Amino acid sequence: MSNDQVVKLKYGAKLKTLKSYMTGLFLSLLLTFTAFILVGEHLLSNAALYITITALAVAQLFAQVLCFLRLNMTGEGRWNSMAFIFTFLVVFVLVGGSLWIMYNLNVNMM
Is the pLDDT of residue 9 over 80? Predict the structure, then answer.
């Protein structure tokens, strides 16, 4: 094994494979074009379209995290995954808290 492969295994990332990248590319393109067609052709009502676009965005996030970032829950990769989850949690709290504050300001100022 080369030194580069040892470093990658040490920090929990799987080795780069063409199959992983091609799978990620295919899934990303499929999800993007699905969203593009749904919006472009107005195939759903507005409420259903918002929900579907959000679900497609979350699915694309997971596809890219698994295929391109190669996060996993093995013993070596658990710390990388926990850092990603913590970052997602912090962003969720910041965005959710900001929206909550703006909503309460709007209600109390009117």
Answer: no
